[in-house]
Amino acid sequence: MSRPQESQRPLFPFGNPFRMILPKGSHLSPRLIALLNSFEEALAERLRKLKPKDSEDVLTLSWMRLAMDSLCAVHTDIKTLITALELPVSDWDDKWIDVYLDNSVKMLDICIGFSAELSRLKQGHLFLQCVMRNLDSIPSKQFIRARSSLDDWKHHITLKSSKTENCFSVLDNLVATLNEPKVKNSSKGKVLLHAMYGVKVLTVFVCRIFAAAFSGSSKKLMDLHVPEKYLWAEAFTSLQAFVNGEIRTIYSSGGVTVLKELQAIHVVVKKLYPLVEDGPNSMEAEEYKNCISNLGKSASSFSEGLDILLKEVDGFFQILLTGRDALLCNLRVGTDVSSPVQRNSNLEQVVR
Could you tell me the keywords of this UniProt record (predicted)? Predict the structure, then answer.
């Protein structure tokens, strides 16, 4: 009985991943195997690209944008796979739909929490702008105001948001649903849920990294175990070990934040603060001038990076929202109900 399946094996140079997840007698057509193989290889490649080249690239805003862009791409890939499977919603198991809708609500909540935290960090830029304006002048009164603004900035940046803590609770619930559901009598359903597992793993991993970065602690980082049967397992394990390891190293060594652009501002502020306590003397004039210049560049880079990352998070929010709305609309075929997407504002409006 195994003879007819041997012709399919070249599709999997590292072995057939389905031998571990499909019960005896199960059969996937060459087309279904090709679809899933294509999805998993694409996911593996995204994971490989997401692995930083060195430790200095971990948790830069550019890496975070790439991570969020990868999430958007993978969630788009799963929608493309669903279309290719030609699996009508009417054939979906009620449990699949319930889990999908429940998870999508959790992910929307996480996006709102991330957007709120990024907006809060963005607000800190106002204090740095006040510092720069006050340091344009030499009078001692301006130095006093600059010190006050620096104090306000340091206090603002170290505040912890309850929304971030809530993100960890939501992610814990998502982790509890990571186990791939069993599917009976549906080859297409097996392919769909096998692929969705990959989407959920990457989503939980990236969002956990973001939450850890915003919380200022590595205590709630989590190392997810992915079975070797998945074609993207090796790429994911390598990525997770590298990024989690670097974050733990930074926090264990007393780092204030793992956000690299924010670290750069902290370094400049630490040098600048003593110089504005009484005003720089002639020996410190050059260092003072360099600090002001570096602060301006670092603050501007951080602010611009936050703006771009906010747009990426909003883009992910919209992908989740439209995917959820498309499913709900398909479930309501034959009813005169307007699309929920027309009744939802964008992420920035939700946060406000």
Answer: Membrane, Transmembrane, Transmembrane helix
